[in-house]
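Figure-free illustration: sequence to structure, shown twice.
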Amino acid sequence: MADIGTGASLTFGTSSASFDLLSINPTNHSRPVVDTTHLGTTTARTNTPVDLIDTGGLECEILFDQTNTSVPVSLLGAVQETITLEFPKTNTASTNGLRWAASGCVTDMGYAIPLEDRMTQSMTVRFSGTITRTAES
């Protein structure tokens, strides 16, 4: 059975920015590698993994509302703050869904202004450091 995204939310701890979310797409967590290839290497390149994991971020689509003063454009110049992604509850008896919380900031934003359709904004959030995961409760 697949879970449904309805009910997911994104909270900005310091700025208290609010907007109508259409989608939240977490980017991949990754473990970069360092190229260790040298002039004596034969056959194929070599590498070694680094110790630190890149926790990625979020790509979000929101409804464009030019009257909203807390729209993401104001977040581009903001300092890092705690950003919490709450997944939808999977159990009706739960109070909260699974939560990811991390320090982060908005790094990119764009707009879509189509003919005869709703205007949207795209927003990229970049995490810094470890993501704290709290189980559904």
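We now fold a second protein in the same way, so the two outputs can be compared directly.
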Amino acid sequence: AELGAIKGLRSSFESAFNSGDAAKLTALYTADAVSMQEHMPPTVGHDAIQAMYTQMHGMGAWNVTLLAEETKVLGDMAYDRGTFVMTMTPKDGSPNVTENGKYLVLLQRGADGLWKVAREIGNSNDPMVPPPDPKAAKVAPKQK
């Protein structure tokens, strides 16, 4: 039963994320949750997590697919580990960006019996994009 409830939470997360609903996403987290995403400092608490998702979805439409590989319940705590594929379609018409990665989520069962995200970390499996080659940069001609 607990694994089914956690699967439901994962499904609710995907649905809220893919619809761009920052408020519904935030409701899936504990009040003191910590989200640790790549290339940004930890995001702590409901207000900061909602602001993070609002900012992300302001950049474009997102789609994530989560594939759980291991879920284990340990009393009122559980963890969910797996992989993700995430695509962002920028609002400015730039090409879509797709990332393949992995996640680890620590879940907490509340007094109401509902599971929520307490801590999460996600990071990419894709190679880091190298910085531009300074030799390839065009140099403006000197003014006389």
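Summary for the second example: The radius of gyration is 19 Å.
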